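Students often ask why we bother encoding 3D structure as a string. The short answer is that it lets us treat folding as translation between two languages. Here is a chain of 121 residues written in the first language.
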Amino acid sequence: MKKLLFVAAIAAMGLMTSCATSAHLTSNRNVTQTNVELAQKNYRVIGTVEGSAKIGRVFGIGGISGKAIRANAYADMVKNAKLTGSQAIINTTTEVKQRGVAPFYWKTVVTTYGQVVEFTE
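And here it is in the second language, the structure alphabet:
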């Protein structure tokens, strides 16, 4: 009886744990790419901006592809930047966090960060 209770307790603890992973993507994986040369002092840094996208999967079913969720996070960042005139987003990085109770439920959150600069000349 003690062995059965011990096995049941270990199984219950295993079901109550969760897993999480995190990755930072510094390469440009966006659909569009803009080259900005900041060799002169003809710009000023406005601030930072971020955008995110989330998906959930149940038993591995649901959500969108990794490329699509990164594109959605980038689009949200551009929307949040509210760029006007001669402004641009530079130094973009993407962070991917996944957590859940595998294989039952898995949540992915992709967040893209960048700096907004404005050209003065």
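Translate back mentally: The CA atoms of residues 20 and 99 lie 4 Å apart. Keep this in mind for the problem set.
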